[in-house]
Amino acid sequence: QFFIFFFFFKQKTAYEISACLVGSEMCIRDRQYAEESKEYNEFKKQEKFYRFFKGDFKKDISDIIDLNNPELDLNKFGITTQLIKGYTVYKFKQPEGIYLIKNYLPIATQVECCVNCLNEYIKKPFRTNMYVYDEGYTEADGTKPKDYSREKFIVNDPKRYFFNRKIRWTNLGFQYDWNNRFYPNVKTSVPDNMRQLAMEVISLLDLGSYVPESVIINFYDKKNHMTGHLDDGEKDQISPIISFSVGLSCVFLMGENTKDVKPLAIRLDSGDVFIMSKHARTCYHGVPRVIEDSLDAEPFENYLKEKYQDEEHAKLKELGDRSADEETELPKNNEYNAVNYLKENRLNFNFRQVEVSNDGA
Q1: Backbone angles phi, psi at 65, to 5 degrees
Q2: Lowest pLDDT segment from 26-30, 83-87, 209-213
Q3: Whole-structure pTM over 0.70, yes or no?
Q4: Which of 41, 154, 162, 256 could form a disulfide with 330 if both were Cys (CB 3.0 to 4.6 A apart)?
Q5: Which H or E element spans position 210?
Q6: Please, what is the Cα angle at 286 between 285 and 288, to 5 degrees?
Q7: Which stretches of the chain are DSSP H helices?
Q8: What is the tens place of the pLDDT at every residue in 93-146?
């Protein structure tokens, strides 16, 4: 019934009900959504199965591709491996153009990215789904979105973290108009450290020229999901999408260019990077499930202990400026808070090239 409610009111409440449905794993409108037909297609069947699955993701599902499992039959799924500069790169036969590198991001980089996502990338000039509450904003029909109870969504706990859980996505670089499905000539800078992440992957896999012009950062809690969709808003439909996972694991569905084909179900963990290039760039994909309590927190805890040894580590909870930020109205998160956030949530930040370059890349 959730889906029926969402799509019946989608024109007025898309951001209210499911503001997380945006990005390389997300879209607000899926014009071929299966609920519009009498029977579920193959993609929708898998979405429903994984979203409502109650068993053990490591023991009870033989069709999920969990590359942490040493007994996984790679041949069954058409997966080959290649060692490149010390990284094991998994290459999928179908759909063509999928690469996955496990544990690619160092722990320090994951923590740094999380701190920036919680503190900086949710502030102007970067735009989040909260822009619908800006002064002067109205919907296409002239109405304003219904206000929400901020207290219901705020986490303001120094023993956990500081964040408004109503924020589901933020956009760096080219600012996409999710209602009208195009990129207007509005953009911010893409932070150098973020650009570098994408370019290092492009170089490692020798994927040619690339300009990371837009970054979508998705914020998931354990209940969030997104339906299958195409990333068809960019003029450039050839250059790959580079997608990083940090925090809780998820089930990622990778389909074909039609939802009538059963998608692959792939487990993505913290630190993984997933690349959709070539044919896969134009295929359906989605995330039906974030896996609760799936983060291996020990490496993160060890990182904090090594960085802040002895009494410094004991005082880490108190480090940083605890005065409220003028824009977020919350204290800033330190690394301790970031690790706590990742234990309960998932971050996904994905890069895409928007404009077609002169050489067609």
Answers
A1: -90, 100
A2: 26-30
A3: yes
A4: 162
A5: none
A6: 145
A7: 2-8, 10-18, 42-51, 107-119, 150-153, 192-205, 298-307, 311-314, 335-344
A8: 999 999 999 999 999 999 999 999 999 999 999 999 998 888 878 777 778 888
Q: Distance between CA 21 and CA 229 in Å, rounded?
A: 10
Question: What burial class does residue 91 get, using C-beta atoms within 10 Å of its C-beta: 0-12 exposed, 13-18 middle, 19+ buried?
Answer: middle
Identify which of 90, 44, 23 has the alpha carbon closest to the alpha carbon of residue 227. 44
How does DSSP assign 279-342, residue by residue?
GGGGS-EEEEEE-TT----HHHHHHHHHHS-THHHHTGGG-S--SPPTTT-SPPP-HHHHHHHH
CA–CA gap between residue 324 and residue 110 (Å, rounded) = 24
Beta bridge partners of 170: 128, 217
Beta bridge partners of 320: none
Phi, psi of 6 (to 5 degrees): -60, -45
